[in-house]
Backbone:
């Protein structure tokens, strides 16, 4: 009973807080967070009040994080895949316009001021500007310019020169130079422009360079008179000149069209795609075969030291992957690497690991085998133990040899339980950026081609190069578009695999 | 399946296993030797002529790279994240294993498929998410460990929920049913009966998450910007790239020190690993 009261009290309190936040977000106009909060509050209330939604109480804590850190980034990625989000187009349109409105230029025959600077009691800079055109005096304090009466009692004159302000003498030229940084930062609003430092001894009136017309949605360059209209994420003039920075706009399917129409991308795409497949397949096949073989060996109850062996064989799994990859990279160095030193002293050969396409691929498969077999071994060890031994005894009585037993009993039963893990492993290796990037960086480059795709680049490392490491800055919109395509490919393969291995049917018995 | 092997076959088996062990420990031994070698080169091989500890001393004496702090950061981030991951995925797995509700199958499959999205490419979204979060809640923003932990919590949930659900499925329902009849709530049954029985899989998820997060490099290097906040892998990269040029001896020493705690934890808990990982997986 106390529990129920406590529950309702806490829920009420949370709801009150939530409603307060919702009102706040509504006023601030943050619709995305607003929608998220409303959905979250709805789920929370449903979970705690409805009997039927009882399981939700267990799921919600996890789902919150899963939603925020996995689902939301994916949705965000989908939304920027349709934009031109990239270097030079990071700002929103409003931010870009605000940026242009802060640009000023120095017109000819502009009003200029001589000035004197004083330090206030608080250490702030106070300026007295004297217009060379009109002779009027201005006081510049706290970022504002105000007209100053020459007879102001705070001023102290000597030979028609101001000698002190509020009893403080003006800064010397040397002190001015020391404070140049602060002086240069001043931008005092005046008329339609600003008054800024033009040289060490004078301030001048700067006029805003660009004028934005919200009705026509045009930006006019007051210096040259050119008119710019927004076009494809940049303000562009009639003669095709565009202003930097641009801004972010929705560009529809442009990024996707680019993937499939650009020769730079389609050219190597199918080669990269083929190797990605082969790589994922080889990774799973080699690690599984070795893992299974070792598991069968270690599962032999007559083998002495098998627990010690298991411990030693698991070691690669316990070393952080990025360390072992960098170490392998050193070991496989063609000229100085230990592997080649050993091969050279034994067989007098040096293998160009990491330098020739074929050997680089071999090196990747080999190193990935080292990284991945312990996992497969552990999984297979457990799976083997679950196969009833009567089956083998019956087969033995029927005269089946060891190979037949393996083929007809061990493998099929093993595959049923391990197939889902193999599918998962395939999907993981399909996107195994770490191994490729840390070992070969996608290289070696392919001679005679224009593209940045190296011989061992898989889709994800190739996308990384295209989107972030090419000379054109960071192309997030494009990278997002490709990530969606990769996701579709991996998702489809995995879904199909699950179906074909029938593991889903077995799983659905348990579901 | 197994017959007692003859003498020659036995020798053959042991030879194969020892060859594999050589393959497995070779890089580890090599880097241990490199960390004791006075030369800072990547390519010195074999047993060093003179054993020196200067690389280890260097690690803890140079204020430009606070190695001890990085190690502590990593242990902290990985330790806390893994604890939460175990708790969150156990809750979710219990619901998927024991309750029958609308959307359950779809939810399980969606969890697995969504997990296959290349999260590395979603890093822009994660970066901006933490940036905005930091405006409202500064201790959760960029360059904070709490923010990084938050990101890791979401990323690890799918696979672990599957793993745990598989294990929970193998625990007989009768055990909780009797508790329910005795008047326990489902949550009490979960905490008092299921969790103690599922200790192996809890340990497995903890170890796997810990190792995964401890060595995670890409997200940490994007989301952590200050040297003091670096985790071990992010800092380790400094030894072999950029301003410190390449100092493989120091790198090797750091790797050994960084890997030892992990290996100790891992090897001491490996009996859980085999029973936990396989029982859940086998049921599927």
Residues:
């Amino acid at each position: 009973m106390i529990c129920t009261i406590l529950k309702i009290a806490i829920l009420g309190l949370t709801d009150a807080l939530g409603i307060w936040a919702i009102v706040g977000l509504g006023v601030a106009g943050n619709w995305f967070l607003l929608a998220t909060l409303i959905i979250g509050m709805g789920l929370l209330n449903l979970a705690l009040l409805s009997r039927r939604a009882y399981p939700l109480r267990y799921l919600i804590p996890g789902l919150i994080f899963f939603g925020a850190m996995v689902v939301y980034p994916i949705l965000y990625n989908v939304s920027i895949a349709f934009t031109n989000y990239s270097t030079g187009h990071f700002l929103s349109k409003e931010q870009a316009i605000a940026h242009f409105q802060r640009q000023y230029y120095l017109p000819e025959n502009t009003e200029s001021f001589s000035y004197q600077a004083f330090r206030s009691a608080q250490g702030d800079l106070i300026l007295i500007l004297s217009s060379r055109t009109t002779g009027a005096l201005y006081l510049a304090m706290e970022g504002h310019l105000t007209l100053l009466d020459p007879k102001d009692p705070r001023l102290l004159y000597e030979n028609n020169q101001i000698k002190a302000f509020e009893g403080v003498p003006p800064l010397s030229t040397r002190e001015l130079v020391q404070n140049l940084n602060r002086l240069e930062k001043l931008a005092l609003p005046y008329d339609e422009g600003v008054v800024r430092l033009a040289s060490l001894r004078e301030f001048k009136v700067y006029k805003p360079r660009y004028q934005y017309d919200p009705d026509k949605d045009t930006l006019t360059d007051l210096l040259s008179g050119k008119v710019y209209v927004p076009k494809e994420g940049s303000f562009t003039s009639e003669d095709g000149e565009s202003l930097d920075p641009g801004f972010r706009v929705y560009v529809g399917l442009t990024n996707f069209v680019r993937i499939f129409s650009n020769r730079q991308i389609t050219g190597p795409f199918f080669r990269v795609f083929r190797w990605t497949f082969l790589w994922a397949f080889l990774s799973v096949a080699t690690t599984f075969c070795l893992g299974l073989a070792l598991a069968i060996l270690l599962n032999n109850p007559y083998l002495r030291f098998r627990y010690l062996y298991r411990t030693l064989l698991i070691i690669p799994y316990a070393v952080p992957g990025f360390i072992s990859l960098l170490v392998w990279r050193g070991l496989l160095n063609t000229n100085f690497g230990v592997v080649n030193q050993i091969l050279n002293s034994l067989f007098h050969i040096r293998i160009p690991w990491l330098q020739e396409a074929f050997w680089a691929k071999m090196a990747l498969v080999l190193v990935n085998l080292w990284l991945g077999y312990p996992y497969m071994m552990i999984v297979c060890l457990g799976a083997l133990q679950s196969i009833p031994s009567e089956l083998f005894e019956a087969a033995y009585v029927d005269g089946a040899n060891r190979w037949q037993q393996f083929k007809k009993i061990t493998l099929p039963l093993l595959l049923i339980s391990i197939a889902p893990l193999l599918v998962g492993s395939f999907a993981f290796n399909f996107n195994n950026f770490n191994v490729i990037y840390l070992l070969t960086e996608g290289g070696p480059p392919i001679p005679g081609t224009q593209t940045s795709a190296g011989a061992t680049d898989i889709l994800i490392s190739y996308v990384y190069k295209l989107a972030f490491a090419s000379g054109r800055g960071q192309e997030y919109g494009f990278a997002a578009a490709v990530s969606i395509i990769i996701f579709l490919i991996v998702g489809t393969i995995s879904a199909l695999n699950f179906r074909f291995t029938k593991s889903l049917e077995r799983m659905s018995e348990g579901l | 399946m197994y017959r007692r092997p003859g003498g020659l076959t036995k020798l053959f088996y042991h030879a194969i296993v020892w060859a594999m062990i050589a393959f497995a420990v070779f890089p580890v031994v090599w880097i241990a030797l490199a960390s004791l070698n006075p030369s800072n080169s990547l390519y010195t091989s074999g047993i060093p002529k003179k054993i020196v500890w200067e690389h280890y001393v260097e690690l803890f004496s140079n204020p430009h790279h606070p190695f001890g702090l990085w190690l502590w950061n990593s242990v902290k981030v990985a330790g806390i994240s893994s604890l939460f991951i175990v708790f969150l995925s156990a809750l979710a797995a219990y619901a998927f294993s024991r309750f029958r509700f609308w959307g359950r199958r779809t939810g399980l499959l969606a969890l697995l498929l969504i997990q296959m999205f290349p999260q590395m490419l979603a890093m822009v979204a994660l970066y901006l998410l933490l940036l905005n979060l930091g405006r409202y809640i500064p201790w959760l923003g960029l360059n904070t460990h709490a923010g990084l932990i938050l990101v890791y919590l979401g990323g690890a949930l799918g696979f672990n929920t599957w793993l745990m659900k598989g294990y929970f499925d193998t625990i007989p329902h009768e055990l909780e049913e009797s508790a329910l009849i005795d008047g326990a709530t489902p949550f009490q049954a979960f905490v008092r009966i299921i969790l103690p029985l599922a200790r192996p899989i809890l340990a497995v998820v903890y170890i796997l998450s810990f190792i995964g997060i401890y060595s995670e490099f890409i997200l940490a290097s994007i989301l952590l910007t200050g040297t003091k906040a670096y985790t071990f892998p992010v800092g380790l990269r400094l030894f072999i790239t950029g301003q410190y040029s390449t100092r493989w001896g120091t790198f090797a020493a750091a790797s050994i020190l960084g890997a030892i705690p992990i290996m100790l934890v891992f090897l001491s808990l490996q009996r859980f690993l085999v029973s936990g990982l396989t029982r859940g997986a086998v049921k599927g």
Q: What stands out?
A: Chain B has 14 helices and no strands. Chain B touches chain A through 94 residues (CB under 8 Å).
